[in-house]
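The passage that follows is intended for readers who have already worked through the single-chain material. We present the inputs for a multi-component assembly, then the predicted structure in tokenized form, and finally a short commentary. You are encouraged to pause after the input and sketch how you expect the pieces to fit together before reading on.
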Amino acid sequence: MLTKKQSMSKTPRFVLTSLFFALTLLLSTSLSAQDAASEEGAADGIPTDAGLVSAGESLFKANCTQCHAIQEKVIGPALKNVHERREKEWLINWIRNSQKLIQSGDETAVALWEEYNKTAMPAYPFSEDEITSILAYVKVESTKEPVAATTAATGDAQVASTGNENAVSSGYLTAILVVLVVVLVLILIVLGLIVSVLTKYLKDQKGELSEEDQEVVGQKFDLQKLLMSDFFIGAVAFIFVALLLKTAIDGAFSIGVQQGYQPTQPIAFSHQIHAGQYEIDCNYCHTGVRKSKAANIPSANICMNCHTAIKTESPEIAKIYKAIDYDPSTGEYGDNTQPIEWVRVHNLPDLAYFNHSQHVKVGGLECQTCHGPIEEMDVVYQYSTLTMGWCINCHRETNVNTKDNEYYSKLVELHSEHSKEPMKVEDIGGLECSKCHY
Amino acid sequence: MTMLKSINRLFVLGVVASGLAACTAGPDDTGVEYAPQMYHSTPYEPLTQIQSTEAGSWLDSNPEDGHGEFYNSNPYNKFGMTMIEPVEGTIKRGTYLADNGIDPTDYATAEERLVNPYEGKKEVLKEGKELYLRFCEHCHGEKGLGDGLVGAVYKGVTAYTSATVKDKKAGHIFWVITNGKGRMGSHESQISVDDRWKIVTYVQTLQKQ
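Having made your guess, compare it with the prediction:
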């Protein structure tokens, strides 16, 4: 199929198009008050009256924005001035069934198909009027400046600057504190100097001082005497022993408690970005949490649901690619795979049994109850102590989630016969040794 | 003499205290474990692997096995892994429904042949929605308009109301979740067959909103 460009020699075509364009402009501006733009009003067959454009806008937003933008390339090409690049007839055929057009051997269509790595555009069963309205919207949008991009950029800049402000203000705070300390020390020195000068002055005028004043002036600060006094030695010894004892007791209680353990992982995965910023549900990756004892470390295929397209240049993502032998430039997988050796953070001793599904699915606990603010952690650390006292405490305080669970209805009935308190975990055997130790 | 004695005692207390203080866990240190054999299993642990044969040799209860107490690797597996993948061709219980001999990219046949066991059952919608919010929402958005937080940066996420997909039947949606389509990857390993049908049932209400 030949385009206009190829079918005409250059000069007359230029004149013709400019004439066309001028005519279009004239027509669309002068006649827009009437219904002139409705049918053959515009030279390219795409009238731009307000009703049509707004219909096109809603269609465009519902169907096209996933892959197309006006000003920039997304999945598909930028649509700015697409009505000038292609004929309306071609566009209609393409939108209705791009594959058919490609298979018919249309040069432009095949070129596009190749350029965009054979990503198929789905077939949209739009009527001609609907397509015209979308094109009208694109046409109107094409004349606008790329506003959205600039606002987004300034938005980013604002975020960055507020971040800087925070850093700056905390810097100021330290500076102010340092200055204050320096000033106070200076005042102290000056005061000391004044005192010594005054004493010296008074000493020089011995004769004119009374007995009491003499005593004050002659007073000597005996450091050695103070240091050797029983009170001082006793106080220092007490503080020292108390500190040592506290350290010793704290240390003894931390044996077997791995709270705060935050090992460096082989890939710098951030929960803060995934669970915090993008609010991806924990269950999406930790698929075992409602079904088994362990929440499970997600396999790399789950990473690849997004990272075939997101952050493909990142050196951290490259580590995943290496582990699964994936070539991001061709999108192909090899056989030379190797495991990613994540470092285990939470590890209960074998003497205790813990089951995730029991707590999360049945008990309805949030992940954060035990794992803390996971969505704020760049590197995961053990938030809770995971000691027996910690478990027991929760079993004593937590009400059993009996709502909509028939399994518990008889138990609740029995429980309420002799207690007014709601049924706690301890009431259904949450403190039995053999529940966790067997 | 008494002075010397008490200083001696203080010194001992100091040593004990600093020794105990070193038991606390730190960023790259698990701290001292009480009964360390309990923290390092003898049987193969699926989510633990210790490849060093030296690990825990100070505590070795079985010198004949040629490795330390904490060693936990399966020498017969590749990379000494303690987990192995199921034998090729294994079908997980409950997933036989998914494999109807339909080609992974043949959405039309899937749409025609696969039947949603929850078709028209409103009682699964609540669970379907819960599952949808867990597995789909971050890309497809709460209302399925393709406007989730991840979808916004990932691009190319389909809105269920768009003209191309709003009339797709359950089988098609099921096949897309199972095998992926376009930029969407396969979610077969994450979502069970049963859960997938529940999600499908909910997504069908989003198509018609």
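Commentary: Chain A touches chain B through 66 residues (CB under 8 Å). The longest strand of chain A covers residues 326-327. How closely did your sketch match?
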